[in-house]
Amino acid sequence: xxxxxxxxxxxxxxxxxxxxxxxxxxxxxxxxxxxxxxxxxxxxxxxxxxxxxxxxxxxxxxxxxxxxxxxxxxxxxxxxxxxxxxxxxxxxxxxxxxxxxxxxxxxxxxxxxxxxxxxxxxxxxxx
Length: 127
Prior knowledge:
Layout: H1 2-20, E1 29-34, H2 36-39, E2 48-53, E3 59-63, E4 66-69, H3 79-91, H4 101-124
Antiparallel strand pairs: 1-2, 2-3, 3-4
């Protein structure tokens, strides 16, 4: 009788762990941030950027309706995307108000990606 109860208890714990870690591998996670302050943008500039990643195959930034692809799922693979977005923000007049605002903005874009990738990696530990 004790063996049956122990077996039942173990099965319950395993089923709860399985359900709580159930994850769609193709699920994409995204994080958005308004970068106007970080880039020192004029008030009429839309500086909303979104970073998305599935944590396995693809990650990218979306800015003004265009996706800027990274070459992997690590922040270091997003340099080209970051530079493209930074150039667009400079063209829009950002970075002219405060000294160093472009560098601060690029750091914030990288930090946004790192936070999201860390979250995705933590979630994937269930698999």
